[in-house]
Amino acid sequence: MPQINYNVERVNLYESIANNLEEMILNDSSQIGQKLPSEQTMAANFGVSRNVIREALKILKERQLITLHIGEGAYINKPGDQGVTEMLNRIVLMDNIKPENTFELRTILEVGACRLVAEKANAVDFQPLVEVNERMRTSKDDIDQRIALDMEFHNTVARLSGNPLLELFQRSINNLIAPLIRTALLPLSGNESGIRDHQLLIEAMRKGDAGQAVSLMSEHLRKSAQNYQDGELRKE
């Protein structure tokens, strides 16, 4: 059973308890999937009511650190990228962040990712990228599938970089990227050009040519941004 510090300050009790439980969870990732003690047990050990424990558990659920199963209790959970995605979406909407800012962020993340992949080419299995690009080619007339596969390609590059944070942020901006890709595919050149760029990028990374990979990804994203602008004009 998880080792929990039951000593808390008597101010904002449920928040203090939530913080204690969070510290316990973060300090030992091996506990993921384990069940927390029952509400009754924690209430008795913390010296508070079960309502206070319920409020603390609500906070942990919002932080994606636990999942609550009706009739079963609370289980320790590893947060996914959904929380980061939701936060970014709110910021973009509230701060009226422009599409060009998203393209700039993509360039920073994805150029760095392909450079890392090229630098460790000998230890990388490029087959997943080849397969995704081929699926893009065979389903290029299905716009929704084409968008999903395009994002999968770039997510895979981020994963192959070996940097888990880079992969996390790449996946987290998918919801921002998807509508931009949809518009960028409106010009006739957008579809075939992207697939061709991906193939050239795979070949450069596979050869371990980081300079060429960086150049190709930069140009690929520049064209994508231009196709987006052209697509916006076609809508008008």
Can you walk through the features of this model?
- This protein has 236 residues and is mostly helical.
- Helices cover 70% and strands 3% of the residues.
- The protein has helices at 13-27, 39-46, 50-62, 82-94, 99-119, 127-138, 143-160, 164-172, 174-184, 189-207, 210-235, and strands spanning 66-69, 73-76.
- A two-stranded antiparallel ribbon has the order 1-2.
- A hairpin with a 3-residue loop joins strand 1 (66-69) and strand 2 (73-76).
- Helix 1 (13-27) packs across helix 3 (50-62), helix 2 packs across helix 3 (50-62) and helix 5 runs antiparallel to helix 11 (210-235).
- The chain is elongated and about 65 Å long.
**Approximate helicity band:** 55-70%
The main sheet comes to:
2 strands, antiparallel
Beta-strand percentage range: under 5%
Number of helices: 11
Which descriptors apply to this entry?
about 240 residues, mainly alpha, about 5% strand, two-stranded antiparallel ribbon, elongated, 11 helices, 2 strands
